[in-house]
Structures are given as structure tokens and as C-alpha cells.
Design brief:
Blueprint: E1 13-17, H1 22-33, E2 38-42, H2 45-50, E3 56-60, H3 66-80, E4 83-88, H4 103-131, E5 134-139, H5 152-172, E6 177-184, H6 198-210, H7 216-228, E7 237-240
Parallel strand pairs: 1-2, 1-4, 2-3, 4-5, 5-6, 6-7
Helix pairs in contact: 1-7, 3-4, 4-5
The structure holds NADPH dihydro-nicotinamide-adenine-dinucleotide phosphate.
Residues 17-18, 20-24, 42-44, 47, 62-64, 89-93, 112, 116, 139, 141, 184, 186-187, 189-191 line the site of NADPH dihydro-nicotinamide-adenine-dinucleotide phosphate (NDP).
GO molecular function: oxidoreductase activity, acting on the CH-OH group of donors, NAD or NADP as acceptor
Organism: Streptomyces caatingaensis
Protein name: Oxidoreductase
Length: 247
């Protein structure tokens, strides 16, 4: 943990899940540049530490572990003050055909992408409601708005993220808390690497190679733009994809 302050102007605490790589790492860097102290979560502690951001508490936490999430948020708040932003970004994409795919892969996607995201919400929301202020950014996908072949369970988890975010917004908007769904198209990260179906993986890689897809920074920019709007304004859904991505 590096608690050396590099920023004269102190902003409130932001929590980023899946901060060790891809979109989460780019978002953590962007928030740090804007002066936020951070709680960075992911399973691989070394990758979180390697970001070497100032005022950042790093915790090796599996988002499916509800108690560990709660404890990490409590510890960070005792050091940096109340959480003002949660970027619920941790996720896994294990593409494949449902009739061939090991059922354990469905379980993992449902556990991380849906239950893990809810654990994040649960860890920060009571305090936000009490303070009548705060922002939850749930990272979904364009696959949470439309279907693609071989995306059945992944897409199901992201439709769940969209659906629960819409309902959650209705619950907490009377308390002054914002819920923002960010739905990226294809982004150049390691997300695809965990897919075990080699044929499906090769097909997706060919698509990725045919288009100049988004960078993690592009998505981080969208997240920080939405967060930076006044608290009375909620950019409810941000759908952002490469211009060259047709579907
Ligand atoms: P990455 O694989 O780079 O990032 C995923 C992050 O989630 C990793 O840092 C990983 O860290 C973390 N993670 C995975 N499982 C867990 C877990 N159980 N507990 C805690 N952290 C976990 O891919 P992206 O940056 O692309 O993905 C970020 C989000 O963006 C995901 O929700 C993804 O679905 C979404 N998305 C990505 C798109 C893309 O094309 N890349 C398109 C649309 C949406 P660790 O392994 O250390 O735990």
C-alpha cells in the first residue's frame, strides 16, 4: 500500500474492482490523476501493487467473497473517508456453446459478473444512502443489450447487470445516489484469453483483428466523464463502441 499523498486537492474515495488490468487499471489511473484516493480490488495483489498509484489501498479480494468486500471497504473508509464512487468492473467472459461448455464456466460468470457486482453494491450503498450522495458505475457490455452467438451465459450475466442497474436506480435515486450502466463494445484487453473453446476464441480474435477496437482508456474516459457531471445529473447508460464495430 502506498499512502504517500501526491495531490494537494483531496477528492473522495473511489473503489475499483478488477483494477489490476484492462478497463479497471485504466480507470484507476484516470481517477488517481484526478486526485482520488483509491481502493483497488482484484485477486492478483501483485498486479494491483504494480500500478504504484499514490493514496491507493490494494486488497487481494475475490468479489464473490461478500465478507472480504465489506471488510476492504470498511478499512479503506477508515483511512480515506467515505466512498463516493464504486466502479463495479470485475468480470469474466467465457464464451462457448451452452450445450458444450462446462457448467462450471456458467457458474463462474454468474458468480463474478452478477453476484460479485451485487456484493460491491451492497458494500457501499448503505453509506451512500445515509449520506445522500454517491455513484455506482456498473460495467456491463453491448452484450447486455443484444445477443451474439456463443455469448449465451456471458450475455445473460450482462443483461442481468443492465436489469438490476435499472431497478437499483429506482430504489436509490430518491436518496440522491446515482447508478450508471457503462456498456462497452469490444475493448483491447485480456478478457478473451480465459475462454477455453479455442474455435470460438479464434473467431472472436479474428473479429477483433478486423476492427480498430476501443482501448481501455476510451472506456475509462467515458466512466470519468459520467462521474464528473454534477451529482444532480445521472448519465443513466453509456454505450460506447469502436466506430468500426458494426454489430
Ligand atoms: P480484464 O480481464 O483485463 O479485466 C477483468 C478484471 O476482473 C481482472 O483485473 C481480474 O483480476 C478481475 N476479476 C476477475 N474475476 C475476479 C474475481 N472473482 N474477483 C475479483 N476480481 C476479478 O478484462 P476487461 O478490462 O476487458 O474487463 C473489465 C470489465 O469490462 C468486465 O466486466 C467485462 O465483462 C467488461 N467488458 C469488457 C469488454 C471487452 O471487450 N474487453 C467489452 C464489454 C464489457 P484478477 O484476475 O486479478 O482477479
Amino acid at each position: 500500500m502506498n499512502t504517500q499523498s501526491a495531490h494537494p486537492r483531496r477528492r473522495p474515495l473511489a473503489v475499483v474492482t478488477g483494477a489490476g488490468s484492462g478497463i479497471g487499471a485504466a480507470t484507476a489511473r484516470a481517477l488517481s490523476e484526478e486526485g482520488h484516493p483509491l481502493l483497488l480490488l482484484g485477486r492478483d495483489a501483485a498486479r494491483l501493487e504494480a500500478l504504484a498509484l499514490p493514496d491507493a489501498m490494494t486488497r487481494s479480494v475475490d468479489v464473490t467473497d461478500r465478507a472480504a468486500m465489506d471488510e476492504a471497504v470498511r478499512d479503506a473508509e477508515s483511512l480515506y473517508g467515505p466512498v463516493d464512487l464504486l466502479v463495479n468492473n470485475a468480470g469474466v467472459m467465457l464464451l462457448g456453446s451452452v450445450h458444450r461448455q462446462p457448467a462450471e464456466e456458467w457458474d463462474r460468470m454468474l458468480d463474478v459478473n452478477v453476484r460479485g457486482l451485487l456484493n460491491g453494491v451492497r458494500a457501499v450503498l448503505p453509506g451512500m444512502v445515509e449520506r445522500r450522495r454517491g455513484t455506482v458505475v456498473n460495467v456491463s457490455s453491448v452484450a447486455g443489450r443484444k445477443s451474439y452467438a456463443h455469448h449465451t451465459v456471458y450475455s445473460g450475466t450482462k443483461f442481468a447487470v443492465h436489469g438490476l442497474s435499472e431497478s437499483l436506480r429506482e430504489e436509490v435515486s430518491p436518496h440522491g445516489v446515482r447508478v450508471i450502466t457503462v456498456a462497452p463494445g469490444a475493448v483491447e484487453t485480456g478478457l478473451l484469453s480465459h475462454t477455453t473453446d479455442e474455435a470460438v476464441k479464434a473467431g472472436y480474435q479474428a473479429f477483433k483483428d478486423s476492427v480498430e477496437i476501443l482501448t481501455p482508456q476510451d472506456v475509462a474516459d467515458a466512466i470519468t466523464f459520467a462521474y464528473r457531471l454534477p451529482q444532480r445529473v445521472t448519465l443513466r447508460e453509456v454505450v460506447v463502441a469502436a466506430t468500426g464495430q458494426a454489430a
